[in-house]
């Protein structure tokens, strides 16, 4: 019989851990991000125009580090 203690941490990945939330965007050649959100990297890649210098980028809002 296993006992679970309320409030105790559980093994595995925490779906609500903000360190795991990655944002995807499109960086314009001017160094600014486009003013829209993308649900996935694939969606951002389909929207971006690399021939005009646009780049798909990912970042984490908590640590503000590039992925």
Automatic annotation (TrEMBL):
Start and end residues of each stretch annotated as Disordered: 1-20
Domain of life of the native organism: Bacteria
Name this protein carries in UniProt: Uncharacterized protein
